[in-house]
Amino acid sequence: MAAWQFDVAAVFEYGDQTLPPLLRRRAQTILAESFEPPRQMTKSWWVYGPEAGNRIDLFVDDDGTCELSARIDARSDADSFLNCWLILMLELNCSLYAPELDWSFPADIVSLKEALQSSAAWRYALTYR
Predict the structure, then answer these.
(1) Of 4, 37, 66, 111, which is the most exposed, with the fewest CB atoms less than 10 Å away?
(2) How confident is residue 100, by pLDDT bands cut at 50, 70 and 90?
(3) DSSP SS3 for 53
(4) What's the pLDDT tens digit per position in 34-62?
């Protein structure tokens, strides 16, 4: 992960980062409506958005469940991307988890921006603006 990247994962009920197949299909439908077609990185990994920028990663397990995360480019004006990510989280009834900070938080713009602004990626981006 680059110094300017901040990762945040979708969290389903009870802190589980694995989403059931029905939510995976819903996520794929919403992502298809909001982004260009994804790039398939491996058999089970799709990326929505540019590799070096704001993007959403979808990892699908053999049983049809998935993990969903956003990689935020702290150097960019990411407001529209953050809004798309939060709409997706609300549609899926998910909260968020930032592994770097070990923070769990609700899927709202204030909490997400607070986490982003607490990250090493944010500090890095501030030094290069």
Answers:
(1) 37
(2) very high
(3) coil
(4) 999 999 999 999 999 988 899 999 999 99
